[in-house]
């Protein structure tokens, strides 16, 4: 079970980095110009999402979905910190309080 949960955390992190890449790509992607869809950030973001999905499916072999899926919610926490660090977004105390509650919720679900 612990291995599957660790893989779930990696999935959350990969998906979070993928989300940051998609945000960066969003500035230059134009859906009216197919050439703009060939964007390294878009490709990396989608690849990370795909890798996270495949790892998630693999991790499901070792734990129930009711335990693993909440672990994926850690992506909210990762995106908050990555958004502040990489994208220079502003975060407020309630953002951090919400992130703390997500971590607390995951910890409670893991407690057996």
Structure in words:
This protein has 5 helices and no strands. It has about 110 residues and is mainly alpha-helical. Helix content is about 75%, strand content about 0%. The longest helix is centred in the N-terminal third of the chain and has 24 residues, at about 1-25. The chain has one domain (about 1-110).
Low-confidence stretches: none
> How many β-strands, per DSSP?
0
Number of spatially distinct domains? 1
Largest sheet: none
Distance between the termini: 11 Å
Short description:
Helix content is 73%, strand content 0%. With 112 residues, it is mainly alpha-helical.
Map the helices and strands:
Layout: H1 2-25, H2 40-59, H3 65-72, H4 74-85, H5 93-110
Helix pairs in contact: 1-2, 1-3, 1-4, 4-5
Could you list some keywords that capture this structure?
single chain, about 110 residues, mainly alpha, 5 helices, flat
